[in-house]
């Protein structure tokens, strides 16, 4: 099969969606298929990838890490021209985007009579509101709804300020819509984006996990090793987590922070202000395999975001290499094997502090919750790719949705 992926952002930009579709590409190609990526051009890219079409885009301030496609018609013509040069017919389109890339992918599938699979990665309502507020979220929805209606040649929805209505404009053209978690699939169904969403989690790279063995700590009196990893942005609630770690004041425990983002300077300041510099260290970004190896050595990996994550790969990767997790979102906790999770009663700083204290007490008493045997629970990409290939075959057999 020749599968055409449409994404919002260049794979060199930081983000879980980019990691996910590149991993899918890797395992689809390993299975003998061809994957071509359509992505926004990135101005500070570190590599040119084979099988990638970069369409005209403008960098999004302040960092320029992400891009926006201001003219989808120009982007469309670029894809048309570059695919013609490849002279390799496309069998199926897979939307791995949530905004302009989603419109472009749906338009391409519709115009070329191709079957379409759509993966909805992001809760735009929560993500945009966290960054820009509710008023700008409604304005963004108006723009996206008008944009989609124009490109897909149908009427704009009555409630043009509803971001879920925009998602429905895309999904109505898809043979199948997938979501990375059960709770997000239910959210899509609740908002009538799709009648039935198929749950297919983002996977963990088999090659990364292979050879990384869970570390079993014998000495319960050792310095406890906690890890927080993710994008340093408001929706990830890193500042709240630092407040919880400070409030917990756990004796003989250290915190390692990995990631980058707009709150990096603020995190450094908070570490000093709260007097945590001697027990908490900010390390910045690590190569992916190094980070997962680091997870395997930790006593727990924490995730502090609430209502934002549609899956939250960090905790999946941690459990895959044997390390238990602490989470603040009960919906994320419900997707994971309960025996490897400490769940904060509420997302508040005080309750996260209590959960940290409870975790430390459990570990000291020998109840380390190490995920040495996850049973049937698995998110290895090789297994998930096999399921996706079956879905592609089913969509191709059905033919394009009209």
UniProtKB/TrEMBL annotation:
All residue ranges annotated as the Glycosyl transferase family domain in the record: 220-362
InterPro entries: Glyco_trans_1, Glyco_trans_4-like_N, Glycosyltransferase_grp1
Example of a GO MF term: glycosyltransferase activity
Annotated ranges, domain Glycosyltransferase subfamily 4-like N-terminal: 15-207
This protein's name: Unannotated protein
């Amino acid at each position: 099969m020749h599968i055409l992926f449409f994404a919002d952002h260049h794979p060199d930009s930081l983000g879980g969606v980019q990691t996910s579709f590149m991993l899918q590409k890797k395992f689809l190609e390993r299975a003998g298929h061809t994957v071509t990526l359509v992505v926004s051009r990135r101005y500070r890219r570190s590599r040119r990838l084979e099988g990638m079409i970069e369409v005209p885009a403008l960098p999004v301030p302040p960092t320029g890490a992400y891009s926006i496609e201001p003219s989808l018609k120009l982007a469309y013509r670029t894809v048309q021209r570059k695919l013609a040069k490849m002279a390799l017919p496309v069998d199926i389109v897979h939307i791995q985007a949530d905004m302009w890339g989603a419109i472009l992918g749906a338009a391409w599938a519709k115009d070329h009579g191709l079957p379409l699979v759509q993966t909805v990665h992001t809760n735009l309502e929560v993500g945009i509101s966290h960054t820009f507020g509710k008023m700008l979220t409604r304005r963004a929805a108006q723009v996206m709804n008008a944009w989609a209606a124009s490109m897909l040649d149908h009427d704009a929805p009555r409630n043009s300020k509803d971001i879920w209505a925009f998602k429905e404009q895309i999904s109505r053209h898809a043979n199948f819509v997938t979501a990375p978690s059960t709770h997000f699939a239910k959210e899509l169904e609740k908002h009538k984006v799709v009648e039935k969403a198929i749950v297919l989690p983002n996977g963990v790279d088999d090659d990364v996990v292979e050879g990384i063995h869970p570390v079993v700590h014998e000495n319960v009196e050792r310095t406890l090793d906690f890890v927080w990893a993710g994008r340093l942005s408001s929706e990830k609630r890193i500042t709240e987590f630092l407040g919880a770690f400070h409030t917990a004041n756990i004796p003989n425990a250290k915190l390692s922070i990995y990631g980058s983002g707009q709150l990096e300077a603020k995190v450094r300041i908070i570490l000093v202000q709260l007097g945590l510099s001697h027990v908490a260290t900010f390390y910045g970004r690590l190569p992916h395999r190094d980070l997962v190896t680091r997870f395997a050595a930790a006593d727990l990996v924490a995730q502090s975001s609430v209502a934002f994550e549609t899956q939250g790969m960090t905790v999946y990767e941690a459990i895959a290499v044997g390390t238990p997790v602490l989470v603040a979102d009960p919906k994320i906790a419900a997707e994971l094997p309960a025996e490897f999770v400490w769940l904060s009663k509420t997302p508040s700083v005080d309750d996260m502090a209590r959960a940290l204290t409870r975790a430390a007490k459990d570990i000291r008493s020998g109840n380390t919750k190490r995920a040495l045997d996850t049973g049937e629970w698995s998110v290895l990409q090789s297994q998930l790719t096999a399921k996706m290939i079956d879905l592609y075959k089913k969509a191709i057999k059905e033919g394009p949705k009209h």
